Amino acid sequence: MEHNRVSVKNLGELTLVDALNVPVKLSDLWKEKTAVLIFVRHFG
Amino acid sequence: MFCRQQVAELAQHAPSFNDKNVCLAVIGSGEPHHFKEFREVTGYGGLLFSDPSLKTFAFLGFSSSLAGFMSIKSVVKAFSALKNGHRQGAVQGSTMQLGGAVVIDPSGSVRYFFAGKRAGDHPDMGDLIRVVED
Is the entire prediction scored with pTM above 0.90? Predict the structure, then answer.
Protein backbone atom coordinates (compact mmCIF):
# COMPACT_ATOMS: atom_id res chain seq x y z
CA MET A 1 0.00 0.00 0.00
CA GLU A 2 1.45 3.34 -1.05
CA HIS A 3 1.14 6.16 1.43
CA ASN A 4 -1.28 8.17 -0.71
CA ARG A 5 -3.69 5.25 -0.52
CA VAL A 6 -3.74 5.06 3.28
CA SER A 7 -7.16 5.98 4.61
CA VAL A 8 -6.12 7.92 7.68
CA LYS A 9 -9.70 8.18 8.89
CA ASN A 10 -10.18 4.42 8.91
CA LEU A 11 -6.69 3.77 10.27
CA GLY A 12 -7.38 6.16 13.13
CA GLU A 13 -10.36 4.14 14.25
CA LEU A 14 -8.19 1.10 15.00
CA THR A 15 -6.93 0.52 18.52
CA LEU A 16 -3.67 -0.47 20.18
CA VAL A 17 -3.08 -1.46 23.78
CA ASP A 18 -0.69 0.20 26.21
CA ALA A 19 1.42 -1.41 28.94
CA LEU A 20 -1.66 -1.85 31.13
CA ASN A 21 -3.65 -3.42 28.29
CA VAL A 22 -5.78 -0.28 28.06
CA PRO A 23 -7.09 0.35 24.50
CA VAL A 24 -5.72 3.47 22.78
CA LYS A 25 -7.32 4.81 19.64
CA LEU A 26 -4.66 5.22 16.99
CA SER A 27 -5.88 8.68 15.92
CA ASP A 28 -5.19 9.95 19.46
CA LEU A 29 -1.49 9.75 18.59
CA TRP A 30 -1.69 12.44 15.88
CA LYS A 31 -4.49 14.50 17.39
CA GLU A 32 -2.18 17.24 18.69
CA LYS A 33 1.26 16.52 17.24
CA THR A 34 2.72 14.86 14.19
CA ALA A 35 3.00 11.15 14.99
CA VAL A 36 5.99 9.04 13.99
CA LEU A 37 4.78 5.47 14.27
CA ILE A 38 7.33 2.67 14.01
CA PHE A 39 5.83 -0.78 13.58
CA VAL A 40 8.22 -3.54 14.64
CA ARG A 41 7.88 -7.19 13.74
CA HIS A 42 7.82 -8.38 17.32
CA PHE A 43 9.37 -7.61 20.69
CA GLY A 44 12.08 -10.31 20.47
CA MET B 1 17.39 -9.41 16.74
CA PHE B 2 16.28 -7.05 13.92
CA CYS B 3 13.66 -5.45 16.13
CA ARG B 4 16.05 -4.97 19.00
CA GLN B 5 18.61 -3.48 16.61
CA GLN B 6 16.03 -1.17 15.05
CA VAL B 7 14.63 0.10 18.35
CA ALA B 8 18.08 0.45 19.92
CA GLU B 9 18.96 2.68 16.95
CA LEU B 10 15.70 4.56 17.39
CA ALA B 11 16.44 5.08 21.09
CA GLN B 12 19.69 6.81 20.12
CA HIS B 13 17.77 9.16 17.81
CA ALA B 14 14.83 9.76 20.19
CA PRO B 15 16.16 13.17 21.34
CA SER B 16 16.08 14.37 17.71
CA PHE B 17 12.37 13.55 17.55
CA ASN B 18 11.62 15.03 20.96
CA ASP B 19 13.30 18.27 19.87
CA LYS B 20 10.79 18.46 17.01
CA ASN B 21 7.83 18.10 19.36
CA VAL B 22 6.46 15.00 17.64
CA CYS B 23 4.74 11.97 19.09
CA LEU B 24 7.17 9.09 18.58
CA ALA B 25 5.72 5.64 19.26
CA VAL B 26 6.86 2.07 18.72
CA ILE B 27 4.16 -0.49 18.01
CA GLY B 28 4.72 -4.24 18.21
CA SER B 29 2.45 -7.24 18.25
CA GLY B 30 3.45 -9.07 21.43
CA GLU B 31 1.80 -9.00 24.82
CA PRO B 32 2.23 -5.77 26.83
CA HIS B 33 3.80 -7.57 29.78
CA HIS B 34 6.92 -7.98 27.64
CA PHE B 35 7.37 -4.18 27.33
CA LYS B 36 9.62 -3.94 30.39
CA GLU B 37 12.18 -6.43 29.11
CA PHE B 38 12.06 -4.88 25.64
CA ARG B 39 12.80 -1.46 27.10
CA GLU B 40 15.68 -2.82 29.17
CA VAL B 41 17.27 -4.55 26.19
CA THR B 42 16.85 -1.71 23.69
CA GLY B 43 17.21 1.33 25.96
CA TYR B 44 14.03 2.77 24.45
CA GLY B 45 12.05 4.82 26.99
CA GLY B 46 9.38 6.37 24.77
CA LEU B 47 5.81 5.46 23.94
CA LEU B 48 5.30 1.76 23.39
CA PHE B 49 2.10 0.03 22.28
CA SER B 50 1.03 -3.31 20.96
CA ASP B 51 -1.48 -4.57 18.44
CA PRO B 52 -1.80 -8.31 19.17
CA SER B 53 -4.65 -8.47 16.64
CA LEU B 54 -2.26 -7.25 13.88
CA LYS B 55 -5.17 -5.24 12.43
CA THR B 56 -3.10 -2.07 12.05
CA PHE B 57 -0.29 -4.01 10.37
CA ALA B 58 -2.76 -5.57 7.92
CA PHE B 59 -4.51 -2.24 7.27
CA LEU B 60 -1.20 -0.63 6.34
CA GLY B 61 -0.33 -3.54 4.06
CA PHE B 62 2.68 -4.74 6.02
CA SER B 63 3.54 -8.23 4.77
CA SER B 64 3.01 -11.32 6.90
CA SER B 65 4.15 -13.90 4.34
CA LEU B 66 6.92 -16.47 4.63
CA ALA B 67 8.58 -15.06 1.47
CA GLY B 68 8.98 -11.71 3.14
CA PHE B 69 10.14 -13.22 6.40
CA MET B 70 13.41 -14.69 5.17
CA SER B 71 15.60 -14.08 2.16
CA ILE B 72 19.30 -14.11 1.35
CA LYS B 73 19.44 -10.37 2.08
CA SER B 74 17.80 -10.83 5.47
CA VAL B 75 20.26 -13.61 6.39
CA VAL B 76 23.14 -11.25 5.58
CA LYS B 77 21.51 -8.56 7.74
CA ALA B 78 21.04 -11.09 10.55
CA PHE B 79 24.78 -11.74 10.65
CA SER B 80 25.40 -8.00 10.67
CA ALA B 81 22.97 -7.52 13.58
CA LEU B 82 24.58 -10.37 15.52
CA LYS B 83 28.02 -8.88 14.89
CA ASN B 84 26.78 -5.64 16.46
CA GLY B 85 25.60 -7.47 19.56
CA HIS B 86 21.86 -7.61 18.84
CA ARG B 87 20.99 -11.21 19.68
CA GLN B 88 17.57 -12.63 19.01
CA GLY B 89 15.56 -12.77 22.23
CA ALA B 90 12.46 -14.83 22.95
CA VAL B 91 10.05 -13.73 20.24
CA GLN B 92 6.96 -11.92 21.55
CA GLY B 93 4.59 -11.41 18.66
CA SER B 94 4.23 -12.72 15.15
CA THR B 95 7.49 -13.98 13.61
CA MET B 96 6.10 -13.79 10.06
CA GLN B 97 4.87 -10.23 10.44
CA LEU B 98 6.99 -7.50 8.88
CA GLY B 99 7.05 -3.92 10.10
CA GLY B 100 7.14 -0.44 8.70
CA ALA B 101 6.63 3.17 9.60
CA VAL B 102 4.14 5.94 8.98
CA VAL B 103 4.23 9.65 9.81
CA ILE B 104 0.87 11.40 10.10
CA ASP B 105 0.36 15.06 10.98
CA PRO B 106 -2.61 16.52 12.90
CA SER B 107 -4.35 17.46 9.63
CA GLY B 108 -4.47 13.76 8.78
CA SER B 109 -1.86 13.93 6.02
CA VAL B 110 0.50 10.99 5.60
CA ARG B 111 3.94 12.55 5.34
CA TYR B 112 5.98 9.34 5.20
CA PHE B 113 5.26 5.69 4.58
CA PHE B 114 7.60 2.71 4.65
CA ALA B 115 6.74 -0.98 4.45
CA GLY B 116 9.47 -3.57 5.06
CA LYS B 117 9.69 -6.13 2.30
CA ARG B 118 11.98 -8.53 4.17
CA ALA B 119 13.00 -9.24 7.74
CA GLY B 120 15.64 -6.67 8.62
CA ASP B 121 14.19 -3.89 6.41
CA HIS B 122 13.92 -0.75 8.54
CA PRO B 123 12.89 2.83 7.80
CA ASP B 124 15.87 5.13 7.43
CA MET B 125 16.25 7.27 10.56
CA GLY B 126 17.67 10.17 8.56
CA ASP B 127 14.60 10.17 6.30
CA LEU B 128 12.27 10.13 9.31
CA ILE B 129 14.06 13.02 10.97
CA ARG B 130 14.03 15.03 7.74
CA VAL B 131 10.28 14.47 7.37
CA VAL B 132 9.51 15.92 10.80
CA GLU B 133 11.90 18.82 10.19
CA ASP B 134 9.90 19.99 7.15
Answer: no
